[in-house]
């Protein structure tokens, strides 16, 4: 499995990665899915069996959604980030979680640091409270397998390939008939 993982990592660094991925998307989708399932099972097992990590995730209200650990929360004008830009908020929150998680990863037998990535997004949402609308600043923290992005990208390429094949087949049949 390590050889497949290294192959996918090397291919993703190539100059013509998007073209290769588009042409061979079904094959790469299968490889990405196999690697994702294998490593995500190992990562979740390591996280669940470690009481410190699961305690940290539970205390910070992380949830397992769509194959990744997600935490969303509101930050407002009373927080430390009230006068910061969105980029500074993302960088600060990522730094906080990265520091805490790296300290916890020292007690794990599997090398989680090389297989997990932390992504922080910020956004504004309008909420309705008793007829009044209020803007809320929300940040989301994603802990995911580092190839998750490539898995989703390959899935999109595969859908594009299938739709192009389907449309071209219909056009071809209409021309012939």
Note the topology:
Layout: H1 2-12, H2 17-23, H3 25-49, H4 51-59, E1 63-65, E2 68-74, H5 86-105, E3 116-129, E4 132-145, H6 148-176
Provide structural commentary.
- With 177 residues, the protein is of the alpha+beta class.
- It is built from 6 helices and 4 strands.
- It has helices at residues 2-12, 17-23, 25-49, 51-59, 86-105, 148-176, and strands at 63-65, 68-74, 116-129, 132-145.
- The longest helix has 29 residues, at 148-176.
- The termini are far apart.
- The model has no long low-confidence stretch (mean pLDDT 87).
Helix percent reads 55-70%
Uncertain stretches of 5 or more adjacent residues? none
Number of strands: 4
Would you list the SSEs in sequence order as H and E? HHHHEEHEEH
Count of runs of 4 or more consecutive helical residues: 6
- SS-based class: alpha+beta
Biggest sheet statistics: 4 strands, antiparallel
Counting copies of identical and different chains, the oligomeric state is single chain
Any idea what the radius of gyration is? 21 Å
Query: What is the CA-CA span between the terminal residues?
Result: 48 Å
Q: Which strand-content bin applies to the residues?
A: 15-25%
The overall pLDDT, averaged over residues, is: 87
**Overall structural domain count:** 1
Q: Give the neighbour order of strands across the main sheet.
A: 1-2-4-3
Overall outline:
globular
